[in-house]
Specification:
With 355 residues, the chain is of the alpha+beta class. It contains 14 helices and 12 strands. The longest helix is centred in the C-terminal third of the chain and has 22 residues. It is globular, with a radius of gyration of 22 Å.
């Protein structure tokens, strides 16, 4: 039978840092920004020990320090994480010749593996063993009859830590298919579904759809009329656990490249905000040139004090890697922000076409 395995590295960024600093094993570790909680920045990842204190990715470092004052804070080292990720993905691809496995990379710390196997749990176990033997990193594996169920199955496989979605089983491997979907997912909030965030869950709740089971029973045509012809039926499909079945083995390539900067003190002069955007746009353009693919869109993100984040984007007249064009687009987008409140973060991102 064909099964999809979702391989998810445990506390990946923190784990890479712990391999480099074994003396920190067992201690709460938080990675992000410059590694200084007195400066502005957000948590990239937190070790399981830090998560026990409620520290989460995306949280301001200062908040993380208040929740876990004994945590060790480390600066992010993206090249190290990219190298570790590449090593893990190479391990997964090694299963191709022997097991006919196809690998679809989602990012640094996760990938889908598709394979025809009578005992997917055995394959999952061998993957976990191989990843640990080659990289000393650990992973969980969710098994499903499609990508959605495999992805969600991983949540049940993760170690038991306090989380907003509950406590997981923590066995390292878990299977979620059509047979046990309703039993395990039916009473959970729609937010437990991959692809539904807080805003969408709120929209569904406004329509009386609070649980996965309620969403699964909803009329696709009714939701299409209210939420859009594509999104409405898609949400119902999510509730029923329906998604793509086949893992695609195309090489993973970045869909976008970007840089952002969190300022030590709020920028109150818009001229300083423009200067920061120009610098970031030039760095992005350099990355685009290195990537060897022209940018099709440019996006700018601004975080206003105290913590309100807004984004604007535009499609370029034609795909380009030209510095001046990307810089001009970033400044154009910046002017579309009508408020001039104090700014704590600016980000510029280039998006590639044809993905």
């Amino acid at each position: 039978m064909y099964r999809v395995l979702h391989v998810d590295l445990d506390q990946f960024i923190a784990a890479v840092e712990l391999l480099r600093r074994p003396e920190l094993a067992g201690r709460p570790v938080v990675v992000g920004g410059h590694g200084d909680p007195t400066r502005r920045g957000v948590v990239a990842t937190a070790s399981y020990a830090a998560r026990e204190y409620g520290v989460r990715s995306g949280m301001p470092l200062r908040t993380a320090a208040r929740r876990c004052p004994d945590a060790v804070f480390l600066p992010a080292d993206n090249p190290a994480y990219e190298a570790a990720s590449a090593e893990v993905m190479a391990v997964l691809r090694d299963f191709g010749p022997t097991d006919g496995a196809v690998v679809e990379v989602l990012g640094w710390d996760e990938a889908f593996v598709g394979a025809t196997t009578d005992v997917p749990e055995d394959l999952a176990g061998r993957i976990r063993e191989a990843v640990h033997a080659r990289t000393r990193l650990t992973c969980c594996v969710g098994i499903g009859d499609n990508l959605l169920r495999a992805k969600i199955a991983t949540e049940f496989a993760k170690p038991p830590v306090r989380s907003e979605s509950g406590v997981s089983a923590g066995t390292g491997v878990f299977t979620l298919t059509a047979e046990n979907w309703d039993e395990l997912m039916g009473d959970r909030s729609t937010r437990a579904l991959w692809g539904i965030g807080a805003k969408t869950a709120a929209k569904l709740a406004d329509r009386g759809l609070h649980t996965v089971r309620e969403l699964a029973a909803a009329d696709p045509k009714a939701l299409a009329a209210e939420l859009g012809p594509a999104l409405g039926p898609w949400y119902v499909h999510l509730g029923r656990g329906i998604s793509r079945v086949e893992v695609r083995g195309e090489p993973w390539v970045a869909r976008s490249l970007g840089h952002e900067e969190t300022f030590a003190a709020d920028l109150t002069d818009w001229a300083d905000v423009r200067t920061a955007a120009v610098d970031l746009a030039r760095r992005v353009a350099a990355d685009v040139a290195t990537e060897g693919r022209p940018a099709a869109r440019v996006a700018v993100t601004v975080r206003f004090a105290p913590f309100t984040t807004r984004s604007r984007s535009l499609t370029l007249a034609e795909p380009t890697a030209d510095v001046a064009a990307i810089e001009a687009a970033a400044l154009d987008l910046l002017e579309r922000f009508t408020t001039r409140r104090a700014v704590r973060l600016v980000g510029v991102r280039a998006e590639f076409g044809g993905e």
